Predict the structure.
Amino acid sequence: MKKILFITSVLTITFWLASCIGSGKNSDIETSSQEDFPQMEGINLEGKIIKIPDQFAGKTNLVIVAYLREQQLDVDTWIEKLDKLNKIFPDLQFYELPVIDKSSAIFRFYVNNGMRRGIKDSKQRKLVITVYTDVKEFLQLTSMKSVDEIAVFLLDSNGKIIAKTSGKYSEDKVREFQNKYNK
């Protein structure tokens, strides 16, 4: 009986670990100017290391940065409007970036796989890229005020910041993005 319990436990752990992704790594952050989105590395929820913003695929990229788990509802207000935003901005690609302070590999493994379990769709997992970096430096380089609200960036294909805002979706924020995009 003990042998069956042991084998069952080993198989369960093996299957669980097979569905996990790695911890990624802590990323340094740099930028050549305040007009450019910071260069960093993150890990998407499929386990692929992504160079940000170099590997963003859109002609225009909507990047939503969340700093706290509780901010997911604010992120969702933008996600719900993606169809509308796709009509305004040609070739728009959306990315969600949880930006978290540098931490241990065990913590990163736990966070990455917790988020992965919450998102079943492989396409959506590819668009959530977790970055472990110096959050204060990120705020400074992007001229954002605090982690109290999500940050939303509209980038061109070269990673240049076209427009930015913070907080929940609003029509006024989209009009501001549109005005700056059309300049």
Q: What stands out?
A: The beta strands are 40-44, 49-52, 60-66, 92-101, 129-133, 151-156, 161-166.
